[in-house]
């Protein structure tokens, strides 16, 4: 920052897409490092704040403020993600979520960049899911069947991260309550260089997969049988509210952050309310990676990531520092014309 002006940079979705598409394995490693930074107490990650609407209760806009102070990893930054979730958008063939991230200088608080963030949000979510599979699933990164419950952008992004991370599956199936959306998802995925995907015969077939990914918009549990899952199964509970408290209570439970996940009527939070304790929570993914906790091999394992703002900031800084010749970066000189308090 110069004495007489503060520049500001706007980074658009085209540039961000190119960075993410060429860096998925790096992003998984980045998310792992960020979880460790958070585990070490070098972050500030307060509760999310929700803007809701009287005349459209299904919609919301969420503010996720956060800060990272990790000079050893050359990452000290604060900022906020402002992400809108409008489920009815899909009726007009629009993505459900749209977002921006604003980055602030950690020392002065001055803003220095704003970037399109729906792709950042999807990428950090997908990276955390695949990171969990790396540490909670088979070490060979190979399994017979993967299933998706709820087809959309997040599910598609998770498959792309699995592909770049080198995972292989004998088959992948999808189940969605809307056969129209299911078929569009299959057509879209099969046109890309990812994995072949087919429709599950029914929900029961999807729930029997070795790795089950929930990426729905469910607001409350709809999977209820606590005897449903087998010990070898890994459930990636990305949408957080599909599973009954009884199922959660009967499984190993790994979270991204315990305090954040145990609120807002997530499935783990509902289990805490029902049983009056948290003893069914084993710990966090960072603790698993550090070999600080052991899981019961006689139980299925659920990974429930609430989604941390520090992950968004970490990936945003990765993109901000990324050097390539793709269009989409726009510097606004002198965005703040005179930061000095007094003229000297």
Description:
The mean pLDDT is 95. The chain is globular, with a radius of gyration of 21 Å. It is an alpha/beta fold and 344 residues long. The two termini are 17 Å apart. It has 11 helices and 16 strands.
Keywords for this structure?
single chain, 11 helices, eight-stranded mixed sheet, alpha/beta, 16 strands, eight-stranded parallel sheet, globular, 344 residues
Short description:
The chain has eleven helices and 16 strands.
Could you report the average pLDDT, rounded to the nearest whole number? Answer: 95
Major beta sheet, specifics?
Answer: 8 strands, mixed
Please count the helical segments: 11
The tally of strands reads: 16
Taken from the alpha-carbon principal axes, the silhouette is globular
Helix content: 25-40%
Structural class: alpha/beta
Helices and strands, with pairings:
Elements: E1 6-11, H1 13-21, H2 24-39, E2 43-44, E3 49-52, E4 60-70, E5 75-85, E6 97-105, E7 111-116, H3 118-136, E8 142-149, H4 153-164, E9 168-175, H5 179-190, E10 197-199, H6 203-207, E11 211-214, E12 234-237, H7 245-249, E13 252-255, H8 258-261, H9 267-275, E14 283-284, H10 285-289, E15 301-304, H11 309-321, E16 329-336
């Amino acid at each position: 920052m110069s004495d007489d002006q503060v520049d500001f940079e706007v980074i658009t979705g085209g540039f961000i897409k190119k960075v993410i598409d060429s860096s998925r394995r790096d992003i998984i490693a980045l998310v792992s490092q960020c979880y460790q930074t958070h585990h070490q107490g070098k972050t500030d990650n307060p509760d999310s704040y929700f803007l809701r609407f009287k005349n459209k209760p299904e919609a919301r806009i969420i503010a996720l403020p956060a800060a990272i102070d990790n000079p050893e990893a050359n990452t000290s930054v604060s900022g906020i993600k402002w992400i809108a979730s409008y489920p009815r958008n899909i009726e007009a063939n629009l993505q459900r979520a749209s977002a921006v991230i604003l980055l602030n200088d950690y020392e002065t608080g001055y803003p220095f960049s704003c970037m399109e963030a729906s792709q950042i949000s999807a990428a950090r979510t997908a990276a955390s899911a695949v990171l969990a599979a790396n540490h909670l699933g088979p070490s060979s990164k190979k399994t017979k069947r993967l299933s998706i419950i709820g087809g959309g952008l997040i599910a598609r992004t998770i498959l792309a991260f699995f592909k770049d991370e080198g995972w292989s599956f004998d088959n992948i199936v999808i189940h969605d309550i809307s056969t129209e959306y299911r078929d569009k998802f299959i057509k879209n995925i099969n046109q890309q260089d990812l994995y072949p995907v087919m429709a599950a015969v029914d929900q029961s077939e999807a729930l029997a997969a070795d790795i089950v990914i929930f990426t729905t918009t469910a607001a409350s549990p709809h999977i209820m049988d606590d005897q449903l899952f087998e010990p070898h199964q890994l459930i990636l509970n990305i949408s957080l509210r599909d599973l009954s408290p009884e199922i959660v209570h009967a499984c190993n439970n790994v979270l991204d952050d315990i305090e954040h996940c145990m609120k807002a009527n997530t499935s783990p939070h509902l289990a805490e309310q029902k049983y009056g304790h948290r003893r069914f929570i084993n710990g966090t993914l960072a603790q698993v990676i550090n070999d600080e906790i052991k899981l019961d091999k006689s139980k299925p394992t659920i990974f429930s990531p609430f989604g941390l703002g520090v992950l968004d900031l970490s990936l945003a800084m990765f993109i901000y520092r990324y050097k390539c010749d793709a269009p989409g970066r726009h510097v606004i000189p002198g965005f703040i014309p005179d930061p000095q308090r007094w003229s000297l």
